[in-house]
Every structure is written in structure tokens, then in C-alpha cells.
Design a protein that fits this description.
The complex is a heterodimer of chains A (494) and B (484). By secondary structure, chain A is an alpha/beta fold. In chain A, 38% of the residues lie in helices and 13% in strands. Chain B has 484 residues and is of the alpha+beta class. Chain B has helices at 54-66, 171-188, 228-247, 293-301, 307-318, 322-329, 332-345, 348-366, 377-388, 394-407, 411-418, 426-439, 441-448, 455-465, 472-483; strands at 4-15, 74-75, 78-81, 91-94, 101-102, 105-109, 115-127, 131-135, 147-151, 158-164, 200-210, 220-225, 255-260, 265-268, 281-282, 289-290. Classes of the chains: A alpha/beta (494), B alpha+beta (484).
């Protein structure tokens, strides 16, 4: 039975659609696996046994009635900032610890409609603010490849779930790298589509102009299958793009002939250490060996990415998180008047990183500072986006690291800034709204004797070019197969 | 003694008339059990997103065009951030620096027909809040209450804020301005403007200065005015208060003052908080709006003539007095009926007489609007035609219109069938006159004795004898001759 938990989504859907296995059978096996391993991994904040079985039975009924479903019976981990009717939806925060969503996020609804089975709600940095999952107020998630290391963040629970075979697909949200970095840390494919491709309706907002839902998977093909199901206009989200979606899973490539891949002059990896540098040098050489023409491109404004991001994202979050006031739902700490109730509720309900960002954002939007901070950050954002437009005039794709290191041990990044630096390579694409993917590209050892830990290659391409991007990532994955070097320490098939 | 003039600007919030709320599909309806017209979006549940109501945006363009405002090609929504329990997101989606309409002029008139103008600063679109009520204090006030209740049915209702320039100089002008807004918005279908339901709420900024002084005085903002009458009273009271202060050597301070309807005075409202920093920024959940010139022209071409233009037309072309023109214009459909009747009959004076006279009377009696009655403008024109050709006299016309109102039958048909056409047969009329003179020798004597006022009585008797059909002019002429 254990072989089923590590099967790809494509293989599971095929088995269920051809009635070789029932969705219920796949689901029962998966729930048993989760119950066996998740106490050690901590991927899930809530396990959805009943809902999963009910959905599996419904999928089996549809299959019996002759339907073919693209994700029939595929076990799904849902980041706990996405609403799913009747489930606790916490954002990893005390302020929503017991809040049960009365409606369902559009992307999740589309996954369920396509036959996926919701196994659980996955841990995250509180309100998706963090790069290690350590900012969750509700639980610790460990990296299945080394339980002493973080899984990355903010979508650390979804990444750990897929890495430990506790789901075939994980849903994450990526604001500045929150899918790509944990994917790199957990030996997974992590894909952030073009901003606006997948509806945000029912995704609890961190920074509205940056948040984008995307899949974690163990193969590019699986990520493409999930993307094809979720992408497309949603009338409930004004920022979702009303434009035809090109399917991707049926257009995966096996070579890169005819494509130009840009290497970013400003993203020299020599400073990341010899071992990491070697991983990326090898990755770029492999791209060339697959037929790509390698060119150098410049992103001169990318160095302002971090500073820009840490004004825009907190500004938006300071406003988005205002609604958590104790009046209508979630935590309320009573006090003598409404103002004191707000203060007591928010003081008790939000963790330190969330408070830090609300304060930064409130400051950046304040009268007298708005022009100097928020407006200038928006200008810098435009410059960064223009850099990419110029770069894509001379290449089809850009390749660079997904994170500046492999997964690190818990409590090793105590000052916020060193944590923020983890997203140095992913933030510029977020600011430009570009599709970007992280694919396993090699392994590094933290020290001699320790197990090697995975690294991710980030590929990015112009907006709406998901088909090209996923196709190229697939060619690289097939040719290199880095993910197969070793399985997780916890959750590997017996 | 120093003469003072008031300087007044008015901010109005007007709820727009739409099927659904501004950013979700919940009904935009007044009343309802608390918290029954709500959804994840207007309750600001985690993860919910706004989608702008296009009907509300079209209403804004309509409102702007009515006052010759500029409709910029680009507009956007901004977030106005502040915490308030009846505002679910703890920010209000509003418009900061790129409203849907900029500038414009409200032309209005006073009772005597004098035209006035008040420039608009802007009209912008935003969403309404919910309503709080306070329990446990016995009187609904927050002081002494044990808890508060919030009803979110109104949260997210589309609201336009009309901000005027300080061009208003008296309480009467303020009312004229507000009446013009109301008339215009109702007739454009933009809002029902029911002050009693809170669909129009206004604040007035009032200051005074010596006549001839260019600089403005220090203003007070007056709130809690719940009717046009209370606006007038509140502003008058505030002007008097400020003049009193200045005359006695004091200085007016800038503050917010509440109107007290019972005592007829304004009182300082202690401001609970310091000046707000609303931290406006563009709402990232809503994409900027491109307002195409096509859309603006489409909306413009579908708009009825705006009330102030009609007013000027009625005054200039038809010589209608200000009171009657206002009567017509306060009822948009009635004015439209009047225009149709004039077009059909070519007789504005008679049309006006019937519309404000018999037809309004019949409408009041029956509860059916003139425009919805069986007396179509064409039938009214037919009746006016019968009067013009002197086929019937005005007394008969009154009878005929009553019958047409009931049955919808053509006035001509009624007159023909019932033989109501007035008679101009001098032989027949002479017979009636002779009979009446013979029957009233005393009155004839009085007349001849110099009491010519009794002629009216005799005319009436002749008309009665003829069952109203005698040509009144001929009756008078014959009587005069015979009594001569």
C-alpha cells in the first residue's frame, strides 16, 4: 500500500480514472500515512479525515458515472490561509485559531471539482509572513529531509506535506518567495504563476498586489496539472485576469533548443560559497547542454527588491489585517471600551513578526512619510518590472537561484533581516508579477558527515508564459533528475 | 454696524439606487432583519474580495454630467484606514485623489426664481458603513451602555459624496442647493434621496465674515441635520451664534457642532479622537478604472433634461412663474408629462393649467400619477383643442376631463355623444336670456339701478338654463345688450 503515497498526482489520477484503484482506497492509505508520520513532521494544523473520505466517495461516484477527472483521487495539502467551507482556517495565528470558514477559496474549489482530496490544512508562517515556518503560532513544521532544519516558508506545511508523501499536491501562496523557497528546501517543484492567473478569492490576504496561489509537487508535470485546473478568470476577484489560459501539462518539453536563457549579471553565485556556486554553475551548464543558448542579462534595479518589498508588502498588510479586530469573528479579548478591546485583542492575537510588519506598513503609509516610502517603493517596483522587460528582449527565460542557501537549522536566523535575505532572489519576480518556478537542481552538505540538503533552480519568464516556463522546467527536470538522489528522512515509502 | 455674510459649503452623502451593494451581490435594500443582507465580502470575512458595481459607476457619471462636471478618463479606489466597529474591514473603500467626477456647478433657484450657482469640488464614490446601536443604557446612548450591537445590512451600500465649494451665502440658499441635488438625483434615477431613511445625509461648513472681506472666517462643521428644514434652522442658528461671538469681541473656534432639533441650537461635539491620519493608498484589490469616452457619451445621450435647464426653459419659453415651475420640476414624471402635453397641444398655458389643476387634483384623489393615468398627453391635447376652437367651454372641459380620467375615452367622442358642444346659435341663446330676464325682474332692476355686479349671477343663470353649453361670451354680450 505504501507505494501509493509516493505516487505522482498524474499516476494516481490515471489509476483512479481507469478504476485500477478507488479514490477512497488512495485516501484511506494516505490518511493512515499522515497519522503515522505527521506527528514528527508537523505539516498539518488540521487533518480532514471525514471531509477527505466524503470527497473520495463523491469522486468515486463521479468516476463510476463515467466522468474523467484531471485530479481524480489526488491527495491535496491546503495551506491554512485558504478558506475551505467547514474547516478551521487559522493563518497560523492565535487570532484565527478557532475560526471556521463558511466559504471556499476559488482555487481550492477548482481542485476539489477536479477530483482532488483535501487531506489537511497545512502550517505556515503566521499570515504567510516568514521564510522558515517558524513564525507559526500554532505548531512546528520540520523539514522531512532533516528534522532539525526548517522546511522553509511561508508555505512550509504544504511543502513538508508533499516532501513527506503526506500529499501529492500542496497548495501554497507566494508573496515574495513563499512557494519557491520552501520548494527548494524540500526537494520539490514549486510554481508561482503570473500575478492574477489564479483567483485570490478566499485566500486570506497578506499583501494583495503580490499574493499568488500556486502548487507544490514532486514533478513538474504534477505542478502543471494542478496549474491547469486552478488557472483562469474568477468574477469574484477583480485582479484575476480575464484572458484565455494556455494549457501546460500537454505541452511539456524535453529539450531547450531554440530558447535563450538569461543569466543575471547581478546574481553572481560566487558569494554564496563554493559548494552552492558549483551547484548553480552545473545547473546553467545543464541548461546549455539541453540546447539553450546562454546569454547574460542585467537587472540593475533588482538590488532594491528587498527594500521595495519590505515597504509595499507591510503597507498592504497593515490595512489587510485591520479587520482582525475582535468585533465579528476570531479572538476577542474583552476590555472596558471598544478601543481597549481592539488593542488587547490584537496584542494577544498577533505574533511578533506580524506586529513588526503592521508597524512598518502603518508608518510607511502615514501622512508625511507616504511619498518618501510608499510612493518611492512603487516607483522602484516599476523600475524592477522594466528591468525584466528589457532583459526578456534578449532572452526567453531567466535562470537564477531560488534561495541563497539550503534549509537551515531552527532558531539559526534570529534577526529579521537575515531571514528577509532568504528571499533576495525571489522577490524581484514577485514585484514584477512574473511566473517563476523552483526545480530541484542539486545537493549541498552543511558540514561533513551531515546528509546533503536540496537546492532549487529558479526559472522565470514573461507574464502569461506559463506554458513556456513549465515546459522548460520539465526538460531540465527530466534531464537532471536531481530530486531522486535521496528520499526524505521521514515519510519515505517503506 | 458691521454687516456680515455667511460662507457655507456642504458635504452630502447620498446612497445610490442599485440592485446590489457596491462591492458584492447582496441586495441594496433599506431595512430588513439585522444582518440578513450580508455575505463574506460585506462582512469582511478573511479572504473575501471586492468587485466594483458597474451600475453605481454609471450613476456617478450620470450625476457628474448633470452638473457639467469633468469625468476623468482614469479613476481608482483608495482605502481610507481607520478602526470603527461598524466598518467591517476597518478601512473604507473610497476615492482619494482620482474621483470619478471633478468640479462641476450646481445651478439652483430660490423661491422667487432667482438663479444661483454653487461650484462642486468633486463627487466621489465610496461604500456605506453598518449601523451601531447601544444597549443597556436605557436611552440608546453609548454612555452607560453595557454592550453594542452592529447591523451590517447597510455595510457596503454604494454612497456618493458630493463636496461643494464654499459658494453658499445663506440658509435659504443651502436649502435651494440641497433641493436641486435631490431633484436631480431622483430624476436621473441615481438615488431615491429619502432623508428619513438616511439615503441623504449632509454636513455644513459655516463661517461668517464682514461683507466685503475676501478672507474666510473660521468655520464650524455642523452635523446631525435630519431634514432640509433642520438644515435651514441649524445654519440660521449657527450664523447667529457666530455673529454674536464676533460682535461681543470673541473668536469663533474651528470645531464640529451638532444640531439639536429640540432646543434649536448647535452645540460643540467633543471630538473623541485627534485629527485622523487615514493613510489613504490605492486599493490593491481593485484595478484602476478606465472610463471610456464612449461610455460617457452613451450615458449622456440616455439622460433626461436636467431640472435646472428645464426650469430655465419653462421660465423663458413658457413664462411659467417660479412657483409653478418648481411644482412641476419637483415631480420629474409630471414635468415630462407636461412637456409631452405641450408638444401635442402647442399650448403651454392650457397644458400647465390642466397639469397643475384638474389633473393634479384627480391624481391626488385617486392616488394614480398623472403620467400613469388614462388621460394621455394626446387626449389632453384633444381636449385643449376643443377649448381652443370654442367647441366647449372651460366648465364643460372640467366635466370631460373627469370622464376621460375614469374611462380613457376620447374627449371628442364624449362631447359628440353627449351633445356637450357649446351652442353659438344666437337665436337659442337669446331665448335662454329672455327667459332668465323674465324670471328675475328684481335682479334686472338692481342692475339697471347701477348694481352691475349682479350681471355675473344672470350669466350663471343663463349658463345653467343651457346646461352649460351656451357660449359664455355670447351670453354676456346679449345680456349687456338687453339690459343696456
Amino acid at each position: 500500500m505504501s507505494a501509493t503515497v509516493s505516487s505522482t498526482a498524474a499516476a494516481i489520477a490515471d489509476a483512479v480514472n481507469t478504476k485500477a484503484r478507488s479514490a477512497r482506497d488512495v485516501t484511506d492509505a494516505m490518511l493512515a500515512h499522515v497519522d503515522a508520520v505527521d506527528d514528527r513532521v508537523g505539516a498539518y494544523l488540521t487533518r480532514l479525515h471525514d471531509l477527505a473520505r466524503a470527497q473520495a466517495d463523491a469522486v468515486d461516484a463521479r468516476i463510476a458515472a463515467g466522468e474523467k477527472l484531471p485530479l481524480a483521487g489526488v491527495p491535496l495539502a491546503v495551506k491554512d490561509n485558504m478558506c475551505l467551507t467547514g474547516t478551521r482556517t487559522t493563518c497560523g495565528s492565535k487570532i484565527l485559531e478557532n475560526w471556521v470558514a463558511p466559504y471556499t477559496n476559488t482555487a481550492v474549489a477548482r481542485m476539489l471539482e477536479a477530483g482532488a482530496i483535501p487531506i489537511g490544512k497545512a502550517n505556515l508562517d503566521e499570515f504567510a509572513m516568514g521564510s522558515s515556518c517558524e513564525n507559526s503560532a500554532l505548531g512546528v513544521t520540520r523539514n522531512p529531509y532533516d528534522l532539525d532544519c526548517v522546511p522553509g516558508g511561508s508555505s512550509g506545511g504544504s511543502a513538508a506535506a508533499v516532501a513527506a508523501n503526506e500529499a501529492a499536491i500542496g497548495l501554497g501562496s507566494d508573496t515574495g518567495g513563499s512557494i519557491r523557497e520552501p520548494a527548494a528546501f524540500c526537494n520539490l517543484v514549486g510554481f508561482k504563476p503570473t500575478y492574477g492567473r489564479i483567483s485570490r478569492y478566499g485566500l486570506i490576504a497578506f499583501a494583495s498586489s503580490l499574493d499568488q496561489i500556486g502548487p507544490f509537487a514532486r514533478t513538474v508535470e504534477d505542478a502543471a496539472l494542478a496549474y491547469d485546473v486552478m488557472a483562469g478568470h474568477d468574477p469574484m476577484d477583480s485582479t484575476s485576469i480575464d484572458r484565455a489560459v494556455e494549457s501546460t501539462a500537454d505541452h511539456l518539453r524535453t529539450d531547450l533548443h531554440g530558447l535563450k536563457v538569461g543569466l543575471v549579471r547581478e546574481f553572481d553565485t560566487a558569494g554564496l560559497g563554493g559548494e552552492i556556486d558549483a551547484v548553480y554553475k552545473k545547473a546553467y551548464a545543464d541548461l546549455e547542454a539541453l540546447g539553450a543558448e546562454i546569454v547574460e542579462v542585467g537587472l540593475p534595479s533588482a538590488k532594491y527588491g528587498l527594500a521595495t518589498y519590505y515597504l509595499i508588502a507591510p503597507a498592504e498588510c497593515s490595512s489587510n489585517l485591520a479587520r482582525f479586530d475582535g468585533v465579528r469573528y476570531g479572538l476577542r479579548v474583552d476590555a472596558n471600551d471598544v478601543g481597549a478591546m481592539y488593542e488587547a485583542t490584537r496584542a494577544a492575537g498577533f505574533g511578533p513578526e506580524v506586529k513588526r510588519r503592521i508597524l512598518i506598513g502603518t508608518y510607511a503609509l502615514s501622512s508625511g512619510y507616504y511619498d518618501a516610502y510608499y510612493v518611492r517603493a512603487q516607483k522602484a517596483r516599476t523600475l524592477i518590472a522594466q528591468d525584466f522587460v528589457k532583459a526578456f528582449a534578449s532572452c526567453d527565460l531567466i535562470a537564477c537561484p531560488a534561495a541563497s542557501s539550503a534549509a537551515f537549522p531552527f532558531d539559526s536566523k534570529s534577526d529579521p533581516y537575515s531571514m528577509y535575505l532568504m528571499d533576495y532572489y525571489t522577490i524581484p519576480m514577485s514585484l514584477a508579477g512574473l511566473p517563476a518556478i523552483s526545480v530541484p537542481c542539486g545537493w549541498v552538505k552543511a558540514s561533513s558527515g551531515s546528509e546533503p540538503m536540496p537546492m532549487g533552480l529558479q526559472l522565470t519568464s514573461p507574464i502569461f508564459s506559463e506554458r513556456l516556463l513549465l515546459g522548460a522546467a520539465h526538460a531540465y527536470e527530466r534531464a537532471t533528475n536531481h530530486a531522486a538522489l535521496r528520499g526524505p528522512s521521514v515519510g519515505a515509502p517503506a | 454696524m458691521t454687516q456680515y455674510e455667511a460662507v457655507i459649503g456642504i458635504e452630502c452623502h447620498v446612497e445610490l439606487k442599485t440592485e446590489s451593494k457596491m462591492f458584492c451581490g447582496c441586495p441594496n435594500a433599506f431595512g430588513g432583519e439585522p444582518n440578513t443582507q450580508v455575505c463574506p465580502v460585506c462582512l469582511a470575512l478573511p479572504g473575501a474580495l471586492p468587485v466594483a458595481n458597474e451600475v453605481a459607476i454609471a450613476h456617478m457619471i450620470r450625476a457628474g454630467l448633470a452638473f457639467d462636471a469633468e469625468i476623468p478618463a482614469f479613476s481608482k479606489f483608495d482605502r481610507k484606514n481607520y478602526f470603527y466597529p461598524d466598518m467591517p474591514k476597518d478601512y473604507q473603500i473610497s476615492q482619494f485623489d482620482m474621483p470619478l467626477t471633478q468640479g462641476g456647478v450646481v445651478k439652483y433657484w430660490l423661491e422667487d426664481g432667482t438663479m444661483k450657482e454653487c461650484r462642486l469640488t468633486r463627487i466621489h464614490l465610496e461604500e456605506d458603513t453598518g449601523k451601531s446601536s447601544h444597549a443597556g443604557s436605557g436611552d440608546g446612548r453609548i454612555a452607560g451602555s453595557t454592550h453594542s450591537l452592529v447591523d451590517f445590512n447597510r455595510a457596503g451600500v454604494p454612497l456618493m459624496e458630493c463636496v461643494s465649494e464654499p459658494d453658499i451665502r445663506s440658509a435659504k440658499e443651502a436649502v435651494g442647493y440641497l433641493e436641486a441635488l435631490k431633484r436631480t438625483f431622483v430624476q436621473l434615477g441615481v438615488s431615491d434621496v429619502k432623508m428619513e431613511e438616511g439615503s441623504l445625509r449632509c454636513d455644513a461648513n459655516v463661517s461668517i465674515r464682514p461683507v466685503g472681506q475676501a478672507e474666510y472666517g473660521t468655520k464650524a462643521e455642523i452635523k446631525n441635520m435630519n431634514s432640509f428644514r433642520s438644515v435651514e434652522r441649524a445654519i440660521e442658528s449657527e450664523i447667529a451664534r457666530q455673529i454674536g461671538i464676533v460682535e461681543s469681541g470673541g473668536r469663533v473656534i474651528q470645531e464640529t457642532r451638532g444640531w439639536d432639533e429640540v432646543h434649536g441650537t448647535t452645540h460643540s461635539m467633543r471630538s473623541k479622537e485627534q485629527a485622523h491620519d487615514y493613510r489613504y493608498f490605492p486599493d490593491p484589490d481593485l484595478v484602476p478604472m478606465e472610463v471610456s469616452r464612449d461610455l460617457v457619451e452613451r450615458i449622456r445621450s440616455g439622460m433626461p433634461e436636467v431640472p435646472w435647464k428645464r426650469f430655465e426653459r419653462y421660465r423663458a419659453e413658457y413664462r411659467i412663474n417660479a412657483l409653478q415651475a418648481t411644482q412641476l420640476l419637483d415631480d420629474g414624471p409630471l414635468a415630462a408629462y407636461f412637456d409631452a402635453a405641450v408638444a401635442a397641444s402647442g399650448n403651454p398655458q392650457q397644458s400647465l393649467n390642466f397639469v397643475l389643476g384638474d389633473l393634479s387634483r384627480l391624481a391626488n384623489e385617486s392616488g394614480t400619477a398623472v403620467g400613469d393615468s388614462k388621460v394621455t398627453p394626446a387626449l389632453l391635447a384633444e381636449l385643449i383643442g376643443l377649448l381652443e376652437t370654442k367647441t366647449i367651454n372651460s366648465k364643460i372641459a372640467k366635466e370631460v376631463i373627469d370622464r376621460t380620467w375614469q374611462s380613457g375615452e376620447s374627449p371628442k367622442a364624449i362631447v359628440e355623444r353627449e351633445g356637450l358642444a357649446q351652442t353659438s346659435d344666437s337665436g337659442a341663446i337669446e331665448k335662454f336670456v329672455d327667459d332668465v330676464l323674465a324670471a328675475n325682474p328684481k335682479v334686472v332692476e338692481e342692475y339697471r339701478g347701477g348694481k352691475t355686479g349682479v350681471a355675473g349671477f344672470l350669466v350663471g343663470q343663463v349658463m345653467k338654463a343651457s346646461q352649460g353649453k351656451a357660449n359664455p361670451a355670447m351670453v354676456q354680450e346679449l345680456l349687456k345688450k338687453k339690459l343696456g
